[in-house]
Specification:
14% of the residues lie in helices and 39% in strands. By secondary structure, it is mainly beta.
Length: 443
Amino acid sequence: MKAFLCVAPILGAALAASSGDFTVLSMNVAGLPAILNSNDVPGDKTTNAKLIGSFFAQHNYSLIHAQEDFNYHAAIYSTDTHPFRTATSGGVPFGSGLNTLSNHPWLDFRRVKWDTCSDASSSDCLTPKGFTFMRLALSTSSTVSTYIDVYNLHADAGTLDADNTARQHNINQVASYISTWSAGNPVLVLGDFNSRYSRTADTAIRALLSSPSTSLSDPWLLLARGTAVPPTAESLCANPSATNYCETVDKVFFRSSPLLTLTPTAYEYVGGRFLQPSGDVLSDHNPVLVNFTYAAGVSLQQSNLHGGPHGNWFSDVPVLSGVRAGVKVIAITLRGGSRVDSVGVTLSEGTVLRHGGSGGTAVTLTLGVGEFWTEGEMCQAQKGGRTRVFYIGGRTSSGKEVQAGTKTGECVVYSAPRGWQILGFLGQDGDEIDQLGFVYGKQ
């Protein structure tokens, strides 16, 4: 699978809050060139795109995922005011039409093209449709930080057998990516799935919902239908829709993690908020709006992440979520030289957690009874055009210290909240440590 990396915005001074609420909007903005598809929407497409952008700014949704944002992208951005926005990947036939507008910064952004597409019903192979990935920072601080892995997708269209097969491949590809790159993390998946539960031959979204590798839930089912069971009877929506009970192909899925609890509190089709002065719609899709509350985990939490988004994602959260209360770190083992090669801990119940390569010199600090790892320092710099972790230092509740690597001018100190301890890690690695954060557990 080929991932296309884009430069992510630098994390700003996000509010240091471990709980709160935010709104997410998924909208197919009907941005195909008029000569290819009018989308059955009256009016000039550039004018309509500017109106869409102005409504994005007016309603100030926390996170907006746009699909079919092709040839009128600049018009949307010209009237929008969100501080964090993805750069376009191009119009037809070069771009995917997937973009994000956000009030929150992110650490990483990737564009991934579908491995399979079908032209059976329409020209789905004309553009590099697929999905995007970003690690969204809801809040960051010197203690607890909160992140959500967010996906935006546009699946294959049509209802012929070849379309259904391609769409199932699309969803399987996303599920596989979530399993690898979002292990241990809360997740949001938004987009134009071109799929409905009521289509018996179309298994895509039902497969995503039931996949043990993703463990996702649908807020439309929970809030608009009052059940977790997908419907089998078709209920199509008008545009704009006066009811949330009907089903569209535009979906929002979510999951919590031990690090962060997500709770959907409101679900709404908001096509009525995106109308032309004449009362006509601006898109042939009903935009989907969901409100979530979030709260940092009660047994596990995390620090901010330091370093660069390179290497393979790892997380000790799945392991640590299964250990008994009262477990502590009894030994810290770090390897380093010019940079940090590996990090590891041994827990009091015998589990060893280790990440990175085998280079550098190893140093080990053994903790005493009643002693906890409470503070960590990290420094980053560039190596071969990539940001890596050059230094890590640990300090215990008794003042003992351990360190590896080389200090640089870009260093941060993360402290476990009062009554908590550093128990493990999350981040990205290869032969060395590219990105690193700490996982906290209660003392």
